Structures are given as C-alpha cells and as structure tokens.
C-alpha cells in the first residue's frame, strides 16, 4: 500500500499486510493489521503522484510537475531504506504512460515512459546512460478513459497497456525493447459504453488478466495462459500468442454495491481465491474460482 501523507509534510508512507486465509476473523475477513515500513522520508514536490510499478522488492513511482519542464521518478527499496530520484528534462504539460519491470535475460531493471507525442524513452537502472530515446510508437496509449491505465502491467518480461481507442492490448518487451499486440479476450469486443463497461489490466497468479466491470451486474476476470509450446515455429510474437496462448474467464463475481463503486482485484490466495478492494477501504474475498457462470 502506498499513501501520500499531508500530515507528514506530504511524505510518502508505505505499508504492507499479510493475508491469512486459514485464520478467518469473524467469518468475513482474514487479513492482519497493515504495518508501516520505516523507510527514509521522500518529500514530494507535488500533491499529485502515481504508482509506476513494483518488482522484486523495488517500488517505482513518479511525481508530475505540471507547468514546468521537469518530472521526477523515484525508485525505492523499503527494506534497505534506500531510494533514488531520477530527474530529466521532459516536455511541458504533457501526460505520460509508464511502466517499471525486470528483464531476466539481462538481469536489468528498466523504466519505460511514453509521451503523448509518441516518444518512447527507456531508463536502465545502473547503466549510467540516463533516459534513452528509442523511437516513437503509433499506439495511442493514453489514459482518458481510466485514470489508472498508464501503469504498465509486468508479465513474462513485458509491460502491458490497454489501447482504449482500438480496444486491444499492447505489450513492450523489455529484452528487445519492441512493441507487439497481444490477442484480446472476448469481453473487450464490448468496448467502452458510458461507464457501464470498464476494463483494467491486472497481474493475478502470475498471469495477465483483464478485469471487466459490468456495473450493477458483475465483475469478470479473464486470464491469459499458455496452452502449448511451439515457439520454434513462430516468426513473430503475435503469431506465438495466437497459437500458444488462450483466454479463459476465471471469475465472475456478482455486483453487490453501489453503481459507481469499483471492485479492484489485487491478489490471489494460495487456494485460488481472489482478493478485491471495494470502496478503497474494504478487502473482500471471493470464492468463485474458475466459474464462468458463477
């Protein structure tokens, strides 16, 4: 959990919690009290911040500097109490989608950011080369439909975003630093319809997932899983996904709160139950695993 504390001079507060599904408290909840991580203070120059991602114990977040030509990206290790601020000249008054991940082939952590003018930049931690311009992209990876969409979802060595204008999933491979399109689940064919159908990308159980919120009806969670290994016969990543991966609806959860509420899944338990955050305050457990009609 990450929180910006106005009581503490707008410093960032980090928390963690443990979920014990074998110790149900009152028959409803089974999580322990959140514990604050005693990390070095990180004073934010702005009231706005966004989570970029977390990977292998490192946490990455950014602070946009609207009206200036600077933005700040922070890498934090809450265990060692170390953090690093990355500052670079950027374009004035532009939004950016971004992602943070680990490339196992090179043993490197990388930050990726994409400006709305389509410029793509990569920062490799420890390289000393700063932000590298690697070209432009034709994908429209903006966040006008859902404000939390810019955070890239790291799965299988690639960062993933939803391209809302064409309702498809775009991936950026951290090894070859190239984009490719991932096949979409059937639910994305519905498209965006005045808040009645909302979509988010998530990583659950090491799988890329699409969360479909059909407001006042249900929440469906679709997972992308590999079905066979035939990468040697595939010429492109798109072909590999088409031939070796498939989508399945793992959860279908009845909508039981207000219309404008949100069910946000954030983890799977060891027994395969999904944990959801509702109203940003409550943690709920759903047992309807692998039940498309449940």
Summarize the structure in words:
- This protein is mainly beta.
- It has a domain at 188-281.
- Helices cover 3% and strands 47% of the residues.
- It contains one helix and 22 strands.
- The strands form six sheets. The chain has a four-stranded antiparallel beta sheet with strand order 4-5-6-7, with no helix packed on it. A four-stranded antiparallel beta sheet has the order 8-9-10-11, with no helix packed on it. A four-stranded antiparallel beta sheet has the order 12-13-14-15.
- β17 (207-214) and β18 form a beta hairpin.
- The longest helix has 8 residues, at 237-244.
- It is globular and about 45 Å long.
- It starts with a strand and ends in an 8-residue tail after the last strand.
- 23% of the residues are buried.
- Mean pLDDT is 76; it is low at 144-149 and 289-294.
Radius of gyration equals 20 Å
* Secondary structure: helix percent: under 10%
Strand line-up of the largest beta sheet: 4-5-6-7
Mean pLDDT: 76
Give the amount of beta strand, in percent: over 45%
In this structure, how is the largest beta sheet organized? 4 strands, antiparallel
Number of strands: 22
User: What is the general shape?
Assistant: globular
- Number of helical segments? 1
* N- and C-termini, Cα separation: 30 Å
Q: Which stretches are low in confidence, meaning pLDDT under 50 for 5 or more residues running? A: 144-149, 289-294
The ordered string of helix (H) and strand (E) elements is EEEEEEEEEEEEEEEEEEHEEEE
Structural class per helix/strand content?
mainly beta
Domain F-box associated beta-propeller type: 38-231
Protein name: F-box associated domain
Pfam family, one: FBA_3
């Amino acid at each position: 959990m990450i929180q910006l504390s106005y009581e503490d001079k707008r410093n960032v507060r980090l928390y963690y919690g443990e979920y014990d599904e074998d110790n149900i408290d009152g028959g409803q909840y089974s999580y322990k009290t959140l514990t604050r991580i005693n990390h070095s203070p990180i004073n934010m120059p702005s009231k706005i911040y966004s989570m970029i991602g977390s990977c292998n114990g490192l946490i990455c977040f950014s602070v946009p500097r609207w009206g200036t030509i600077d933005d700040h990206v922070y890498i934090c290790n809450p265990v060692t109490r170390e953090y690093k601020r990355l500052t670079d000249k950027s374009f004035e008054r532009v939004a950016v989608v971004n992602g943070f991940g680990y490339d196992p082939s090179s043993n490197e952590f990388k930050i990726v950011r994409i400006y709305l003018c389509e410029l793509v930049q990569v920062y490799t931690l420890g390289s000393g080369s700063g932000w590298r311009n690697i070209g432009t992209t034709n994908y429209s990876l903006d966040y006008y439909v859902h404000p939390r969409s810019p955070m890239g979802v790291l799965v299988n060595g690639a960062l993933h975003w939803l391209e809302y204008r064409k309702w498809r999933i775009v991936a950026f491979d951290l090894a070859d630093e190239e984009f490719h399109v991932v096949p979409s689940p059937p639910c994305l064919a519905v498209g965006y319809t005045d808040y009645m159908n909302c979509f988010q990308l998530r990583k659950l159980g090491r799988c890329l997932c699409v969360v479909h919120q059909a407001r006042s009806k249900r929440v469906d969670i679709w997972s992308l899983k590999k079905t066979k290994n035939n990468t040697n016969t595939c010429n492109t990543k798109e072909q590999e996904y088409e031939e070796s991966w498939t989508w399945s609806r793992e959860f279908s959860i009845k909508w039981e709160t207000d219309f404008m509420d949100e069910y946000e899944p954030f983890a799977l338990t060891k027994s395969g139950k999904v944990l959801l955050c509702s109203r940003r305050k409550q943690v709920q457990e759903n047992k309807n695993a692998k039940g498309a009609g449940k």
